[in-house]
């Protein structure tokens, strides 16, 4: 028995933390046993990465986030998938392809570091216009130094440029503009896509 692994990435303020619980509930209603999680994880390495992003930079943050990812996969994600759970993860490898590159680490290094990480069955990529994200982050408050300069433009651009790299690296992606959907409509669109994917997987 193997579950389904769905990840959600996108620039700060695109609505990942807003959507994940709603998506989890919608998928539970559709009959899946959902396991919600996030990266950095809530384990010791993940807490260090999340709480001390100001202290760790460049290669050290890239390696800390990757170490947390491999531990998270081994201890939480793979066991849940083996129990047939649908694992929904807030941020995964695509976030490293963007944030670590913004932090000065070459993309090729980040790709090689993350090459052994299990590929998701579906990588949802949220986007939105930079001016909208900047306004959302001003209103909500920033979570990390990556959001402090008040300009989401470079992060949005890097995600946009990732499409071919993610395809080459084996990430089946589904892109959604959260500026054009309410959280409820976004959840509906992602649920529809995930259900179609699941039916295809079961038919194979
Ligand atoms: N689809 C949407 N439409 C309108 N507003 C939204 C939408 N999704 C999220 N928001 C609002 O945008 C703000 C940022 O959302 P949220 O914190 O979920 O983003 P995030 O992607 O998790 O950010 P971060 O990466 O910084 O943690 C929140 O105030 C939320 O209410
Ligand atoms: C998965 C991942 C995370 N990070 C860093 C970036 C932020 O400082 C936090 C995540 O906080 P948020 O509330 O989800 O925005 O972790 C990173 O640098 N690289 C990654 O791959």
UniProtKB/TrEMBL annotation:
It comes from the Bacteria. It is an enzyme of class 2 (transferase). Residues 8-147 form the Thymidylate kinase-like domain. It catalyses: dTMP + ATP = dTDP + ADP. Keywords: ATP-binding, Kinase, Nucleotide biosynthesis, Nucleotide-binding, Transferase. Its EC number is 2.7.4.9. SUPFAM superfamilies: P-loop containing nucleoside triphosphate hydrolases. Phosphorylation of dTMP to form dTDP in both de novo and salvage pathways of dTTP synthesis. NCBIfam families: DTMP_kinase (TIGR00041). HAMAP family: Thymidylate_kinase. Belongs to the thymidylate kinase family. This is Thymidylate kinase. It comes from Nonomuraea purpurea. The lineage of its organism: Bacteria, Bacillati, Actinomycetota, Actinomycetes, Streptosporangiales.
């Amino acid at each position: 028995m193997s579950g389904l692994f769905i990840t959600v990435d996108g620039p700060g303020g695109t609505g990942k933390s807003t959507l994940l619980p709603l998506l989890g509930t919608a998928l539970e209603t559709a009959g899946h046993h959902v396991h919600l999680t996030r990266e950095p994880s809530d384990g010791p390495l993940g807490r260090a990465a999340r709480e001390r992003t100001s202290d760790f930079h460049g290669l050290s943050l890239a390696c800390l986030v990757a170490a947390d990812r491999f531990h998270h996969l081994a201890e939480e994600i793979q066991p849940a998938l083996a129990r047939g759970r649908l694992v929904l993860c807030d941020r995964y490898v695509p976030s490293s392809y963007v944030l670590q590159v913004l932090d000065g680490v070459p993309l090729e290094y980040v790709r090689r570091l993350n090459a052994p990480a299990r590929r998701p069955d579906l990588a949802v990529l949220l986007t939105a216009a930079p001016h909208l994200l900047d306004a959302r982050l001003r209103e909500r408050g920033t979570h990390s130094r990556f959001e402090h300069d008040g300009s989401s433009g470079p992060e949005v651009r890097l995600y946009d440029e990732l499409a071919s790299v993610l395809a080459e690296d084996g990430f089946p992606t589904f892109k959604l503009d959260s500026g054009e959907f309410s959280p409820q409509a976004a959840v509906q669109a992602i649920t529809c896509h995930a259900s179609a994917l699941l039916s295809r997987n079961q038919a194979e």
